């Protein structure tokens, strides 16, 4: 995603006006809008992302409709991840399935191909975790990914997530069944993490 949210110079000006709703030291989170459909569709169509996340790309129209639908969902918040200070867009992160009564939610993360392996995923994950525990009454966050998705599992572990089990043969992708690793982070574990919080930046 050297894909800055902006695709042309005139769009760059309007992009910088989009509000960063949550920021940490190196990344900011910008609410996803329907105009981001083409960008998200391109990332989801990447073969590596499709395999690691276990998705199949749909049309841009379907992506736009999904963004509109999710925008009306009180149980879900979707963000573009931008680098600070230049606002280069590097990925998408979401807090989905929010259950305020039980204090639980699920984390989803996808990085643009050209921005993987640079630590951006870890920074984005830490920022969203701080939002979930620091501003929302969450008690438990979970994340699911293929057991062979070593980069994602490393990011989760680095952010304090504990691998708690495997859902065997839980995902069908490209004609093969895949085991899915389930990781979680509890509020008490987050409180014990020795790292600056997003608001300290």
Question: What value does the Rg take, in angstroms?
Answer: 16 Å
How much strand?
Answer: 25-35%
pLDDT < 50 stretches: 1-16
Strand order of the largest sheet: 1-2-3-4-5-6-8-7
- What structural category do the secondary elements indicate? alpha+beta
Overall outline: globular
Distance between the termini: 24 Å
How many strand units? Answer: 8
Biggest sheet descriptor: 8 strands, mixed
List SSEs in N-to-C order: HEEHHHEEEHEHEEH
Q: Mean pLDDT, rounded to whole units?
A: 88
The helix count comes to: 7
What does this structure look like?
An eight-stranded mixed beta sheet has the order 1-2-3-4-5-6-8-7, with helices on both faces. The chain is α+β, with helices and mostly antiparallel strands and 201 residues long. Strand 1 and strand 2 (27-31) form a beta hairpin. The radius of gyration is 16 Å and the shape is globular. Helix 2 (37-44) packs across helix 4 (60-71). The model is unreliable at 1-16 (pLDDT under 50). It has helices at residues 9-15, 37-44, 47-53, 60-71, 120-134, 150-158, 187-192; strands spanning 20-23, 27-31, 77-83, 89-99, 104-111, 140-146, 162-173, 176-186.
